[in-house]
Amino acid sequence: KKKILEVKNLRTYFYTHEGVVKAVDDVDFEIYEGETLGVVGESGCGKSMTSKSIMNLVPKPKGKLEPGSSIKYYGLDEVVDITSLSPRSKEMRSLRGNEMAMIFQEPMTSLNPVYTIGSQIIEAVRLHQGVSKEEAREIAIEMIRKVGIPAPEKRVDEYPFELSGGMRQRAMIAMALSCNPKFLIADEPTTALDVTVEAQILDLMQDLQDEFNTAIMFITHDLDVIGEIADRVMVMYTGKVVETASVDEIFYNPKHPYTKGLLSSIPKIGNKEELVPIEGTVPNLTELPKGCYFAPRCPHAMDICREKMPPTFDINEEHSVKCWLSEKEGGSMNEE
Length: 336
Ligand code: SF4
Ligand code: MG
What we know:
The protein is α/β, with parallel strands linked by helices.
């Protein structure tokens, strides 16, 4: 399997009046061609800031990648460290436009208000699929249909403001998928959509992946969706990765008390409310407790947990857990 992305020692900090917010704090992971890595955790756990860091879209000047952070993208013909590119540089924009695509929750930031949605999708199609204007228009209409927008022949000539929020979201998804990206980051892409449209879009993403071997990083708080599309899962809490494993291991052999808490609160199919899965709340990121950040909410907290941050233990080749309990179970310490 070819590696697409390698993130090492990623620290994305925000310098605020209240203190330093460690939004992403020493995160390591990799993503391979053709796989879907699901990233889960409650709001504020660092999922979105991890994806923004990869796309080089961390809000400046407050947000900053700390020295030592590395994000290597294994592109079509070269390896680039994204942390060395300036956010607005030609290289970064070309990466974002050509090989990497993203779908965020807020569609207005990626749709240009002065162009029709059709012309924006057509532009993406022409750029990436090398077809004529007429063919590109047909493909765009088909794409608009595939993301579940009714009357695509009419919608293609409308402007973003003429569409409802949910339709804009779908138009943005159509645009991102039209680029046939090598690497797609989807950050809660379907949270605002109804379950039928959501299922349609997940199918579409999987078709794209099958056809182009796309690597997908799928960020969500919805474990149903994770179960449906992820190959591997990374669980985040307070800016740190607390557990990584194959999707089966996460569902049938979870180790971290936080992962277990998330799993025991899976909402019923079709219930889209974000519920508080575990008692207590995510601690204030400027006043983190000593030791394990989850200790104040953890039913298994031991003395050592309140004293020392647990290292990451490897349970097996593809399962690692940041919890002292896993040391007792014989996990081997991962020196990184
Ligand atoms: Fe709970 Fe301790 Fe594990 Fe933290 S290290 S999750 S407090 S058992
Ligand atoms: Mg859902």
